[in-house]
Amino acid sequence: MDRHPGGPTTIVAWAGKDASKFFNEIHKGVKIDSYLRPESHLGNLGVDGDLMSDEFWHTLREARIVEVREEIDRVLSETAAKDGHKADSLPRLLQDKNLDPQLKLKLQRLETQKRAALDSEDYAKALDVKKEIEKILSDQAHAHMHDIPLDIPNSSGGIPLSEVARHNKPHDCWIAINKNVYDLTDFLIHHPEQRNSILAWAGRDATPMWDKIPGRFPSKQWMDFFMRSEWKMGDVGTEPKRDPVYDQLKQLHDELRRLQGPSKEDIEAAKTAVKVPGKTDAPTLSEESRFPKLAEISAGKELPFFTRAEVAKHTTADEPYMIIHNRVYNLKPLMGSHPGGDDILLSKAGTDTTKDFEVFEHSEKARVQRDRDMLVGQLVPGENTDWSAEATVAQVVGEETSEVGRYMKYKATDIAVGALAWYLYKTLQNTKPLSQFTYSRALRHLHLIMAVGIFGAVGTAQAASYSEGQTRKQMLWWHKQTGLAMLFALVVRFFLRMQSGIPPRFPGNPMVQMLETQSLRAFYVLALLLPVSGIANEYFLKWAPGSDKTGNAEDDKRNDRLAKQSIDAHKLLGKFLQFAWLPFHLGYTTFYHWTQGRGVVKKVSPFI
């Protein structure tokens, strides 16, 4: 690399890749052996699915960071020596090595406070922080360090659209309409109901959209009649000559930001400016504290930083990003194998899905596999959420129950206690022996209990599909417990059925009798397969041996595939039970015999 005529940059750009075509195009048939020492040859290229290790990739990244920094220093030094070029924006000023450290830290903290105020929609505070920054920069002791525009531009020469584009935030909103520039900041603060439609055009020329709005009389003169005169900043002017150095520096700074994330000063400023609610000395409910193996996966990795706005841009099937416990994941490897299907992943892409993720109680094995295969970065510290012990686990998986919710829960408990008391009362009233030619009393009681359990399992599944957060988690928990109870009851019912008498069948059409028989057989099959498929899904997701035990990555893929097949079968059987078996068994068979005057309820009721 030291002797390469083209410098080390070209070699680093192709490091870890097959550069045969690129090398042959430049060197025109000259063999590489004539350039390198014999000891440089490591061997022939073999078949390897992972040619670049994480450690080597980070080595390349660090080398590129050094190159970008040197390039920035070179451009700045050449520009300063040429015409005394100064920073014309706050980010460029903060990159100035000659800037006083105390002033730099103060500006960073104020800039972070402004971003935090914008995130919390406190636009009045953001405007105050912006004015404080401008006051510091306009001070005589600091004004000579920069060329950042602070005052309102001279309206006599017009305001270029590039200047309007700088004012595109709720606390600093300019819009160009019909060759005039307006400052609508005060209007936004006092009229939040119009915020979204105006912010969509903040910092832009909104004339094309403005002229399409119906009902203006005419729209081009409407602003002259109704807009306050002090909101008009001036006319739209011609664009000044663009400095190519600015574009070059912006491109380099953007690349440096992607490679290394925010600086230590940025992180310290974020921690100082944004106070996380809750006691700082309280134990946290972080994933790594609950699942220690996660710390081993991320140990030694230098993860790039993302803002929530950057993550929100990744919503396609090619790059579905999600935020889970302040970390950013690319879920592309999970597409096609997620037990819940791809639709649920794409519907949540670009958002913070921590609450939804915790609702389904993912196992430590699933979390380790997620971090190993899909972890791509972390949130900037200023945008982190701290799940402190003060808020309890309920804050992670859902909101606290409202007063109405608690009232309904108490009433549901009262109804359940009343139903149980009524059931015990009726049971004690009906204790006489039954004929050996009918169902035993124990089998009758179990039949009623299983009927309630089936409706409970179907009802909790439906309730979970229409709820979120803690409520959804509770409904899923009840659904699982009811399913396990029905599996146990099925085994008990089988033995009771073998010992019980069997009453004669109701007379009727042989076809109807055959359908009734198949319906009962289908019930036993459904009552067995539904909980078994649910248990299989849990097993392959949480307990089946994976690569962490066997060392074979194919085991994880197999477990994911089997888990998805299990939950798909569970959902399909559940739909058959809900929309086919129950309507036939209750809506046809039972109702049919009841309309014929036959005691179908008395045949299975325990209260006789």
Q: In words, what does this structure look like?
A:
Helix 5 packs across helix 14 and helix 23 (441-465) runs antiparallel to helix 24. The protein is built from 28 helices and eight strands. The N and C termini lie far apart (95 Å). The chain is 58% helix and 5% strand. The longest helix has 43 residues, at 553-595. Mean pLDDT is 75; it is low at 273-284 and 388-401. The protein is mostly helical and 608 residues long. The strands form two sheets. A four-stranded antiparallel β-sheet has the order 1-2-3-4. The protein is elongated, with a radius of gyration of 35 Å. It is found in: Cell membrane. Residues 159-237, 303-380 form the Cytochrome b5 heme-binding domain.
Query: Helicity range of the residues?
Result: 55-70%
Low-confidence stretches: 273-284, 388-401
Shape: elongated
Which percent band covers the strand fraction? 5-15%
- The total count of helices amounts to 28
Q: Radius of gyration from the CA trace?
A: 35 Å
Overall SS class: mainly alpha
Q: Which strand order does the major sheet show?
A: 1-2-3-4
Largest sheet: 4 strands, antiparallel
On the 0 to 100 scale, the average pLDDT is 75
Helix/strand layout:
Elements: H1 8-13, H2 20-27, H3 54-83, H4 90-94, H5 101-119, H6 123-138, H7 140-143, H8 161-165, E1 168-169, E2 172-177, E3 180-183, H9 185-190, H10 195-199, H11 207-210, H12 222-226, E4 232-235, H13 244-260, H14 264-273, H15 287-290, H16 293-298, E5 305-306, H17 308-312, E6 321-324, E7 327-330, H18 342-348, H19 354-359, H20 364-374, E8 375-379, H21 394-397, H22 403-429, H23 441-465, H24 469-499, H25 510-543, H26 547-550, H27 553-595, H28 600-604
Parallel strand pairs: 5-8
Antiparallel strand pairs: 1-2, 2-3, 3-4, 6-7, 7-8
Family: Belongs to the cytochrome b5 family.
Keywords: Cell membrane, Heme, Iron, Membrane, Metal-binding, Transmembrane, Transmembrane helix
Protein name: Cytochrome b5 heme-binding domain-containing protein
